[in-house]
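Example 3.2
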Amino acid sequence: MSLEINSADSIITSIYKFHGDFNNDDSLVLTETSYYDRMEFEDPLDIRLRSDILNNTLLLLGYSLGDINTRYIFYKLHKINQDLKPGNKSYSAIMTTFGMSEIQKSNLANWNIQVHELEPVNRNKSMSDFLKSLQ
């Protein structure tokens, strides 16, 4: 999901879903081959995402560093920002989590990704409260 702020009074939100759409069976990621194809990040959706990443802050919900796909997305995000905005220390993304090691937080900080820890005991309420705070 990316947030694009046009003015103090308006927010345009784009939501990206990367593992397919039931309205387009060919887009579903169900096999190892379809997973590897998805990792190429050359789909029109990926081009749109890269454009949004360059101009907005990315909000990541429901991602895990245990998934190589997620780490690769973070790497690409960092590389794009590093190549186009040398020395930029502003956060390019915010990631929500219900718990993460200090090493993982440090790695994400090096990639200019801010970690927002949610309360793991009542996950639904914690996520709901966080999303309401964005309004």
